[in-house]
């Protein structure tokens, strides 16, 4: 493919991304990369652009400053809704940050030759394959994974105790718990469905339980990437199971008028018993209600079981192929691939580490999800396996908003996602 075509595609695709999740050649291994304590050179300033706020990286950034005195990392936060526009315009101009936080768009950036190939550097071998797979193209790896992200149902333990309900371990139990809470005057679930993300993730949670729990079905993703398989065929029975939450009145049309912040506030202040989100929201929840008794359980499946969380590698650090300071950027990534740095990362943003041998205690809040974590029941196919994942799930999520409003069927929503996938395949070909 010609780079001009890819550049146009990047411009079109990255503009639509709302999710979450190097020029000169450098053939030296990380063993040849000079460390800060081996040289008295002047301080080199690196620009790191990220869509997670600096507060979620505070201890990690302080650790870099402490351990790499000859490198100054200037962190530049760009909100997610504008991140890809800003990044894309800079990269197309041959500029951009030295180190880039990347998510679902990493494969596209790598194919457009904007990212440095990290495959041969020794520090990359320390990461589990599950962490590097989303940032790999044709056998080469282009980014080093940070901590995982995961999302399930936060619940208010005190409300569950007061209303006499237990943590659900099946879809039927979730419906029953929701109806019991509503019958007693408590809103079961807060959902900010102004955003297309919550229903998208919740429905895929059911797909994880019923489809991706069978390892034989993992081959579907490769076929989907080639346009040889369709969501509207493979996923339909399982998304229709999720649709029961709409049929039963658990998810309501008025939720389309609620924002993420409004739903968070309703949950934090005790107006709703459950709310779907992840660790990034905990600080705000406690700021609004320091006394809340918080727990999280996975999205349950049709059959009773441990459930699945939506998640996987949350984001990663890549090096701009046009950076003038590749050696210094490599030094940052090499230091990041240490146990100490990994613990600094999760200190301000809970998640597991993909660095082999590093264990993280997530705390009591996630006790109800412990079984799912141990089984590895954490997955998001659009970040883990799909080539053009973010645009596809955005199309799907927006169509689910129409499903909630009663103007589309579940099958039509899945067909919309299939059409988006095929359009991108055709463009890339």
TrEMBL record:
Residues 1-21 form the signal peptide. PROSITE patterns: PROKAR_LIPOPROTEIN (PS51257). Keywords: Signal, Transport. It holds the Pfam family SBP_bac_1. Belongs to the bacterial solute-binding protein 1 family. This is Raffinose/stachyose/melibiose transport system substrate-binding protein. It comes from Halolactibacillus miurensis.
